[in-house]
Amino acid sequence: MDKRARPSADPLGVRLAVAIKRLRSRVREAAWDGDVPLPIAQVAVLKRLRNDGPTTASALAAAEHVTHQAMAQTLSGLKRHRLVRTAVDPSDGRKGVLSVTAAGNRLFESAVASRDAWLARAIERVVTPSERAALEKAIELLERIADAEPSES
User: Fold this and answer.
1) How far apart are CA 87 and CA 84, in angstroms?
2) What is the per-residue pLDDT for 84?
3) Are 108 and 44 in contact (CB under 8 A)?
4) For the segment 12-49, what is each residue's pLDDT rounded down to a tens digit?
5) What is the gyration radius of the CA atoms in the chain, in angstroms?
6) What whole-number distance in Å separates Cα of residue 49 and Cα of residue 143?
7) Per residue in 46-68, pLDDT tens?
């Protein structure tokens, strides 16, 4: 057993992690308040297909770091709601290529618009005009933190 002491948690880091988790949860609620509430895994797949274009289920599973079985479940829900479709891969007829349907694009765009509107309203209600510069600086700091490479243990 390794007897090296683990560093104690930085209270600032803990507060930041909790705040980000709460904000992410609120943003997700605001984005997916429509008729088809989607689990985060399905949202991630829709986003990936929109950004990266059509691909196979196997490639999606690898990109999302999940098993083929988990990806099959995720895709099943998206297909059931007709948010993605499968076509025959033109370079290999044995494979299927997944893409977002028009309904999937509309739902995703609606969710993004809902999220953005909620954030704008929340900022307007909570952040005073004199705090806006501090918020902009905080966003810059969060972006730098997000870009930091994870340290090796």
Assistant:
1) 10
2) 97
3) no
4) 999 999 999 999 888 877 776 655 567 778 888 999 99
5) 20
6) 24
7) 999 999 999 999 999 999 999 99
Place of tokens 């044995």: 94
SS3 annotation, the chain: CCCCCCCCCCHHHHHHHHHHHHHHHHHHHHHCCCCCCCCHHHHHHHHHHHHHCCECHHHHHHHHCCCHHHHHHHHHHHHHCCCEEEEEECCEEEEEEEEECHHHHHHHHHHHHHHHHHHHHHHHHHCCHHHHHHHHHHHHHHHHHHHCCCCCC
Q: Which residue ranges form the domains of the chain, and what is each CATH number? A: 37-144 (1.10.10.10)
Residue indicated by tokens 């705090």: 131
Q: 10: burial class by Cβ within 10 Å (0-12, 13-18, 19+)?
A: exposed
**Closest listed residue to residue 71, CA positions, set 108, 103, 39:** 39
Check: CB of residue 107 under 8 Å from CB of residue 36. Answer: yes
Kindly report the pTM of this predicted structure. 0.67
Averaged pLDDT score across all residues of the chain? 88
